[in-house]
């Protein structure tokens, strides 16, 4: 007679946790099929991933190699052709090869920043929302300070002092973007920590770490995923902006570097649109894809939006 209630207390939170998580995971998995925005966003990201993985096969020419014509002259400012689908730069480099290989740099920056932003934002939001009090106040004041910094000038200053390296750009983006996800996740945790299954876990003697990462974290992971998708676009557009302004790594091929080269060589005045329009479109698509995913997954967290 004594063991039965204890067993019920132990089993109840596990069952409640499964009942809370499984519907969210099902909605997340089914959302791309039911929402055109989420499907379009994921399709765009998948397309860029395929291009990045197959860049060597899609564009076997070295993007930084200076090409020559059959007459021995530098193949500079050539228009689109069968040999050069997007033409060549003023230095005789293949624009198509730069566009394809620039996808790798963009995704490397975007995915790295997204993982750091989602991880830091999730952990800070969990800790601040669960413990509250002084811990919450200190972490949120740090978040406020990070949010008060001007985004692009901060990244430029940091790369100017620490060097024009991709890892520096990723670090700068992560330092300024994590507060956005942390604050939203904190608000969710404030509600989740009062749920019955969390209280039942406390009664059974579960540690704070177990409650945070076993009982609460699975319920806010979908929200972390949404902010990670948004961070990909922010990181890529930041990297492109830094490179366009001339603060990036000159030895790496990126969409921002392509725009910077096109601008300094006055490609617009020569009507060489195939040089700067494709990388600009790629940057726009990546940013829009992040917005599409966040728009599509709003229904997971705000069911009242369904049907409106």
Walk me through what this model shows.
- It is a single chain.
- The chain has 308 residues and is mainly alpha-helical.
- The chain is built from twelve helices and no strands.
Helix content: over 70%
Distance between the termini: 51 Å
Main sheet? Answer: none
Counted beta strands: 0
Supply the number of helical segments: 12
Q: Rounded to an integer, what's the Rg over CA atoms?
A: 24 Å
Q: How would you describe the shape?
A: elongated
What's the structural blueprint in terms of helices and strands?
Layout: H1 3-34, H2 36-53, H3 55-58, H4 95-131, H5 133-148, H6 151-162, H7 166-192, H8 196-203, H9 208-244, H10 255-264, H11 273-296, H12 298-301
